[in-house]
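Work through this protein:
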Amino acid sequence: MNHNSSTPAIPLWDSSAGATAQVAPDCADIWRIRFPQPPDSVETLASILSADEHCRAAKFAFPSNRAQYTVIHGALRILLGSIMGQQPSTIAFDVSENGKPRAISMLDTPRFSLSHTKDMGLLAISPRAEIGVDVEFQRLDFPCMEIAKRFFSMEESRCLKALPADIQCAAFFAAWVRKEAWLKAQGASLGVLRQLNVGMGKSFRDGTLLAGDGAASDFPTIWLQDLDVAPGYAGAVALEEPVNSFTPRLRCLDWQAGSRYG
């Protein structure tokens, strides 16, 4: 298996014009958000955030990071509001028993996951399957081997170390976003990462995490998919499999100011 690929990366990002919310349990939407967004759009989205979200945004040291947080959380509110038939500003959130953020509703609300990095964000929405998404800017100066020693399985660390130096960075981030997406789908902690093999060993094939080191055989079955976000970025999405032979249908959409489900 190639060192940095799972199933072939999803390459197409379509306009969101006319998009309707998906309802089938095997479907999921991945929204790509490019930064920076126009200042008036940031201001509009800020107006629908909660007081708690404003406090969280204010904790970012740089204005660009505050704007990213505002945009991606505002976009989430707009999209969920379209699905739930609710004003975006009135949606309330809490966390599940395993620490995953969720919208509060009397109905079975969609599952979602957020991630943002340098100039890029991803927002994933699934009707019912637990979902996680991650995107990372591939920093060439990142201490890949040092982080791998802490959070990669022994097999993954060995495989990464054996690669030529000029492709170690890309291989590291390809594996890292899969791990982060898995964690977000499960609401798990960083402590389990060393028990997972997600792409540089024999345990990962055909989009499904089959096994890993240690207690990984006890983990729920997770479907993983690479995302071709943009040059210089690594992305992945993870969904919990409700049944065997689960192959979700992904739709990748570009979010713009005013995007919503029709």
Summary: The longest helix spans residues 63-84.
